[in-house]
Amino acid sequence: MAYAVIVTGGKQYKVAEGDTIFVEKLDVAEGEKVTFDQVVLIDGKLGTPFVEGAKVSGTIEKQGKQKKVITFKYKAKKNMHTKQGHRQPYTRVKIDSIA
Question: Which pLDDT does position 17 carry in this prediction?
Fold first, then answer.
């Protein structure tokens, strides 16, 4: 089975055809096609830094936010406490083809 390692959002992902991956938010609407041309490795062929001519294409399935993460800072005897929530946005991509 063909697989590749792509770079997007400052992270590397190992993908194969038919896989669904969660990546950092991409500014593309749901249902549209996206092409990743920063391919580090494809079927054992390593790039320097990227494999020339290699492309991985996929379809955007969903734009969403992850579960809320709560950060709570507290200093004893100083009457200081801070509560903050954060929801990281993500994009769900279904890999269509590796070329």
Answer: 93
Contact yes or no for 49/40 (Cβ under 8 A): yes
Query: pLDDT tens digits for 58-92?
Result: 999 999 999 999 999 999 999 999 999 999 999 99
CB 10 within 8 A of CB 24: yes
Half-sphere exposure of 75 (CA within 13 A, CB side): 4
Secondary structure (DSSP) of 16-50: ETT-EEEEE--S--TT-EEEE--EEEETTEEPSSS
Q: Which residues contact 3 (CB under 8 A, 6 or more apart)?
A: 14, 15, 16, 42, 43, 98
Q: pLDDT tens for residues 41-51?
A: 998 889 888 99
Q: Alpha-carbon distance 11 to 48, whole Å?
A: 17
